[in-house]
């Protein structure tokens, strides 16, 4: 798995501030501390979105979809994004390959206009 320096900084800060000995990476905020459930992750993402003033329905899969789309739109190779997402079939990854109008224009000029 890959982390930016900023993500690594915040992950280390989170781990250093934990007051439990649970082996799970993410745990509940209250005792008894236990592994954060799928629903717990969804709730945390929703709370972050609300604090950020985002009114759309935000959940972990939206974040995954956004990362894949932005990565592809910024020029990443489809196979590389497929590997990052853990997809066995490239067709599954192509769902995320929706290019913005600007990216379409850029690719047209780069590859088709002589």
From TrEMBL:
The protein, known as: Tyrosine recombinase XerC
Keyword annotations of the record: DNA integration, DNA recombination
Domain Tyr recombinase: 1-109
Residues spanning the signal sequence: none
Superkingdom as given in the UniProt entry: Bacteria
PROSITE patterns hit by this protein: TYR_RECOMBINASE (PS51898)
Subcellular location: Cytoplasm
PANTHER family tied to this protein: PHAGE INTEGRASE-RELATED (PTHR30349), TYROSINE RECOMBINASE XERC (PTHR30349:SF77)
Ranges in coiled-coil conformation: none
Record InterPro entries: DNA_brk_join_enz (IPR011010), Integrase-like_cat_sf (IPR013762), Integrase_catalytic (IPR002104), Tyrosine_recombinase_XerCD (IPR050090)
Record's GO cellular component terms: cytoplasm
GO MF annotation terms: DNA binding
Main localization of the protein described in the UniProt heading: cytoplasm
GO biological process, one term: DNA recombination
Name of the gene this protein is made from: xerC_1
């Amino acid at each position: 798995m890959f982390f930016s320096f900023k993500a690594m900084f915040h992950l280390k800060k989170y781990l250093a501030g934990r007051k439990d000995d649970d082996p799970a990476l993410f745990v509940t905020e209250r005792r008894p501390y236990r592994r954060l459930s799928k629903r717990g992750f969804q709730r945390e993402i929703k709370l972050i979105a609300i604090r950020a003033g985002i009114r759309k329905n935000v959940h972990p899969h939206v974040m995954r979809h956004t990362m894949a789309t932005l990565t592809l739109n910024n020029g990443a190779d489809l196979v590389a994004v497929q590997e990052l997402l853990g997809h066995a079939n490239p067709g599954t990854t192509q769902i995320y390959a929706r290019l913005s109008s600007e990216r379409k224009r850029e690719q047209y000029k780069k590859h088709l206009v002589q």
